[in-house]
Amino acid sequence: MLRTRVTEMFGVDHPIMQGGLQWVATADLVAPVAEAGAMGFITALSFDSPERLRQEIHRCRHLTGRPFGVNITLLPTMRPPDYAGMARVCVEEGVPWVETAGNNPERLLPTLKEGGVRVAHKCTSVRHARTAVSLGCDAIVIDGFECAGHPGEDDVTSLVLIPATVDAVDVPVIASGGFGDGRGLAAALALGAEGVNMGTRFLATREAPVHNNVKRALVERDERSTRLALRSLRNTIRVLHNRVVDRILEIESRPGRVDFAELAPLVSGTTARREVWEKGDVDGGVFTAGQVTGLIHDVPTVAELVSRIVAEAEDIVCRRLPGLMA
Length: 326
Ligand SMILES: Cc1cc2nc3c(=O)[nH]c(=O)nc-3n(C[C@H](O)[C@H](O)[C@H](O)COP(=O)(O)O)c2cc1C
Fold this sequence. Notes:
Blueprint: H1 5-10, E1 16-18, H2 27-35, E2 39-43, H3 50-63, E3 69-73, H4 83-92, E4 97-101, H5 109-114, E5 118-123, H6 126-135, E6 139-143, H7 158-168, E7 173-176, H8 182-190, E8 196-197, H9 200-203, H10 212-220, E9 226-229, E10 237-240, H11 243-253, H12 260-263, H13 269-278, H14 302-320
Parallel strand pairs: 1-2, 1-8, 2-3, 3-4, 4-5, 5-6, 6-7, 7-8
Antiparallel strand pairs: 9-10
Helix pairs in contact: 2-3, 3-4, 8-14
Bound molecules: flavin mononucleotide (FMN).
């Protein structure tokens, strides 16, 4: 067994986490992750109200008696969702951990911390990790440039970002972005992290509630199959390359100021949810995926995936690396 401060603080068997995955990290995925001995997070933004989030927490508790958390992603939007209500639900439901992401979590911390909820903040730079810890966050999830979703604008890959973050903060650090197998887990531990967070790899599992065409695409594509969109707006997202992404990149490459009104329908989350996740048209909308796509070759169950990753990492730590000693 691999034991770290991350397994201790989450109260789980393995130093593996499934963080926020909008529309995907419902109880259908989070409960199997918990049952496999890892830590899963229901993504609050998949639900249109705090009460719907509460129902999903209940549904997940019905499916597993093991610990799980809630991800609250703070998006820069004109009409913000009821973040305070989501935090209140987490407190009322006795959720042990919240993963915050997307922006400074300061406004949620009084409610969460006074309510006994511990907070792992996900960010993409050392300076933001330092700030989160100074505000009282209990752990850092650090997302390297390889990651699916929002890698930030600094473009620092996990190989440098992880040890730099470990050196900068004294709370447990969870490495994120580019992890999908036991080699990655062993490498993250060697770099000083105490666990890994995986997004794209959990998409390609049997239980992930998305169309099989998406899972098949992740198996078929390689490590060159993602693109960075919305760079022109300094709101970069790493997405799987498809026809919609080509249209976005064409608009962004035109000289002059980019008109967001032209991009908005192309990056619509609602369209992606319907066309990609539900109907399985992988060219039907924009969806996030990381470079780790190049390491995905099958669609196992969550339990098979987690136990395979742990066995491979243990083999590296206990046999392969000691065997290198002269
Ligand atoms: C389909 C998908 C949806 C995601 N949605 C969210 C989200 O709503 N909130 C969030 O904090 N991170 C989100 N992420 C990012 C993941 O939590 C994680 O940080 C990232 O996937 C790590 O990189 P990896 O894909 O290389 O493992 C999403 C990732 C994917 C693949």
